[in-house]
Amino acid sequence: xxxxxxxxxxxxxxxxxxxxxxxxxLGRMDLLVREGFYSNRADFIRTAIRNQIGAHDGVVAQxxxxxxxxxxxxxxxxxxxxxxxxxxxxxxxxxxxxxxIESDVTPDLALATIGSITILGALQxxxxxxxxxxxxIH
Length: 138
Prior knowledge:
By secondary structure, the chain is an alpha/beta fold. It has helices at residues 23-34, 41-55, 57-66, 78-86, 107-113, 127-132; strands at residues 5-6, 70-76, 91-101, 114-124. The protein has 2 domains: 23-55; 59-136, no CATH class. Strand 2, helix 4 (78-86) and strand 3 (91-101) form a beta-alpha-beta unit. It holds the Pfam family RHH_8. InterPro entries: Arc_rbn_hlx_hlx (IPR013321), RHH_8 (IPR041088), Ribbon_hlx_hlx (IPR010985). This is CopG family transcriptional regulator.
């Protein structure tokens, strides 16, 4: 019942965040950009984040395994949820990355098949499905 799973960011699946920096750090970053080490501020920030995550790879891998989390992109289709419903299964979604509940999934089907959602990253679903599952999202 598994759908597509990607372990790397595909470039078009991103989330925008805001970061406040001190002026000195901002100036140092701009200097590195100007000197050609990075193409722009965003490139610097993405590289810094990847380096920090890489420095903690072992801890992250252990935590993912211990908590039985899926890593990357996990898509839950109407067919996936209908199969779970037919089998009498209640799904507990645990994803590090992006979990997507396809747009043809109704709130009733989601309620009947999704017991809980733990997302470290982002959840994409229709507004109606998110409202229906609001008390199950952690």
